[in-house]
């Protein structure tokens, strides 16, 4: 049987990087990493890069940056998937947003254009605390966020990657939609307290209103586009719609979803929250 030729968009991102690593570790050689820095280069904002990136590819993992919720995302996904299908891509696995109406519009686009498709939905990653937006405040010892009491089943990016690899390689997942969650609900404040306990550091948590949070982000000169996206996530996604747990990870992988505490213990052990890293952020 001919080995699949797999293209991983966002191949250096949180889930894409892990998917590439797992495919390589399992012996797959025909893997193309999609990023601006790889050759051929791939850039969601530059459609001229797409043709060469998908040439000769039959399977694609789609992760859209910055988020499927941003205005214009569905049009970009429509153009990319149409081209991919025209050029012989027969399987598409989309990383979608759990509870995001706009992301579900993109799901329908993929379903309409892909010969075979699988939708993998997730919301807040555990790794947002160590590889993304919450890392710098944690290192600084002061995290200020709105919706402090909202409950979220933080999902480990390693679990997501394991599910995605199965969906890419196994035909039984064609036409399926999976919702991935961690095994329990936590608030952001509880998550920060777990990190503080594991690191032995004092990390203050300050609840804010959304207006106060916007003001704080602008004081740090955060781009307006990023502020819009954060507002969307905190208002539209953290309204209780995702405050539930699924068993899809356990059902697909034959094991429990990774608990946030296990993620925290491993991350603390690796020293990713050591304050020595603060000057390099």
Supply the CATH superfamily name of one domain: NAD(P)-binding Rossmann-like Domain
Count of distinct strands? 8
- Bulk shape: globular
Question: Biggest β-sheet, characterized?
Answer: 6 strands, parallel
pLDDT average, as an integer? 94
Order of helices and strands: EHEHEHEHEHEHEHEHHHH
User: Given the helix and strand composition, which structural class is it?
Assistant: alpha/beta
Number of contiguous helices: 11
What attributes does this structure have?
281 residues; two-stranded parallel ribbon; 11 helices; Rossmann fold; six-stranded parallel sheet
Q: In short, what is this structure?
A:
The protein has eleven helices and eight strands.
Could you walk me through the main structural features you see in this protein, from its secondary elements to its overall organization?
- There is one protein chain.
- This protein has eleven helices and eight strands.
- By secondary structure, it is α/β, with parallel strands linked by helices.
- The protein has a domain of 160 residues: Rossmann fold, CATH 3.40.50.720.
- It has a six-stranded parallel beta sheet with strand order 2-1-3-4-5-7, sandwiched between helices. Strands 6-8 form a two-stranded parallel ribbon.
- The model has no long low-confidence stretch (mean pLDDT 94).
């Amino acid at each position: 049987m001919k080995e699949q030729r797999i293209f991983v968009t966002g191949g250096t991102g949180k889930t894409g990087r892990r998917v590439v690593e797992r495919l390589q570790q399992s012996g797959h050689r025909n893997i193309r990493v999609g990023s601006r820095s790889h050759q051929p280069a791939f850039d969601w904002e530059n459609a001229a890069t797409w043709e060469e990136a998908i040439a000769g590819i039959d399977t694609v993992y789609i992760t859209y940056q910055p988020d499927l919720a941003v205005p214009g995302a569905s049009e970009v996904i429509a153009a990319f998937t149409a081209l991919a299908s025209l050029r012989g891509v027969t399987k598409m696995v989309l990383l979608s947003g759990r509870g995001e109406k706009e992301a579900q519009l993109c799901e329908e686009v993929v379903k309409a254009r892909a010969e075979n498709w699988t939708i993998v939905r997730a919301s807040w990653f555990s790794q947002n605390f160590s590889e993304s937006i919450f890392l710098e405040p944690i290192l600084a010892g002061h995290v200020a966020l709105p919706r402090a009491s909202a409950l979220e089943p933080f999902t480990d990016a390693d679990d997501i990657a394991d599910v995605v690899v199965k969906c890419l390689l196994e035909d039984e997942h064609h036409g399926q939609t999976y919702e991935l969650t961690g095994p329990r609900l936590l608030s952001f404040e509880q998550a920060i307290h777990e990190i503080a306990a594991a690191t032995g550091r004092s990390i203050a948590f300050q609840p804010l209103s959304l207006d106060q949070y916007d003001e704080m982000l602008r004081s740090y000169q955060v781009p307006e586009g990023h502020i819009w996206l954060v507002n969307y996530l905190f208002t539209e996604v953290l309204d209780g719609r995702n405050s539930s747990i699924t068993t899809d990870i356990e059902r697909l992988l034959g094991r429990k979803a990774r608990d946030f505490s296990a993620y925290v213990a491993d991350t603390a052990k690796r020293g990713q929250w050591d304050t020595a890293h603060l000057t390099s952020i």
